[in-house]
Amino acid sequence: MVRVDPADGDHIYIGLRSWWNGPAKIMVSDDRGASWRILTELPGSTIKAIFPGSWWDKSKEVTVITDEACIRISELSGDTTHLPLPDTPVIHAEGGKGDSGPLIYMLSEMRKSGQEFIGGPYRSSDGGESWTSVDSNLTASAETPVYNIFAVSQNNPEVVYLSCESFTDNKIGIFKTTDSGNSWQWSLCEDWDSYITNNF
């Protein structure tokens, strides 16, 4: 995974997944990739998202979400701060920064515990310090839906698309929110009978 700091095009991050039982790592370049240094090793096997500190006016910090952790890292010292995640493993994470500030979204597997749904999509407006579930009408039935990826508008992060692999009544498609996940509507709604054709 690669993230270019939107405040400084020379400042680039690369997230390396674990390899041969080694840990995942985050690397940074301050010279457009001419040279690199390892910031730190990270818990988990896959880096899901990298959020530059410039989003929060902290140019020498970076926040990284892996499948197992949310970590804030000082680029000056390499010191790390573990931030709480609402659920693991993380399937996907993404975010953006608009006029009202940055928003981060993360997605875990939605499942049932008794009569309650747990997991699904979450939102953070404070850099991963706290999280709010934003499943609202995404769990309107007794069936457990399956979601797998976000697409977040980089400059207007209140707008998010969420792909749905399985929903009640045999539906599949894409949900959209324009209010940071407080409500969701179908942007594309199909069912397996109409969507999957002979040329699939």
Characterization of the model:
With 200 residues, this protein is an all-beta fold. The protein contains one helix and 16 strands. It has a four-stranded antiparallel β-sheet, with no helix packed on it. It is globular and about 50 Å long. The chain starts with a strand and ends in a 5-residue tail after the last helix. The relative contact order is 0.11.
Describe this structure in a few short sentences:
The chain has 200 residues and is mainly β. Helix content is 2%, strand content 52%. The protein has one helix at 192-195, and strands at 2-4, 12-16, 24-29, 37-42, 47-52, 61-66, 70-74, 80-83, 90-98, 101-113, 116-124, 132-133, 146-152, 160-167, 171-177, 185-191.
Beta-strand residue percentage: over 45%
Strand order of the largest sheet: 1-2-3-4
Q: What is the average per-residue confidence, as pLDDT, rounded to a whole number?
A: 91
Beta strand count: 16
Q: What labels describe this entry?
A:
single chain, mainly beta, 4-stranded antiparallel beta sheet, 1 helix, 2% helix, globular
Helices and strands in order:
Elements: E1 2-4, E2 12-16, E3 24-29, E4 37-42, E5 47-52, E6 61-66, E7 70-74, E8 80-83, E9 90-98, E10 101-113, E11 116-124, E12 132-133, E13 146-152, E14 160-167, E15 171-177, E16 185-191, H1 192-195
Antiparallel strand pairs: 1-2, 2-3, 3-4, 5-6, 6-7, 7-8, 9-10, 10-11, 11-12, 13-14, 14-15, 15-16
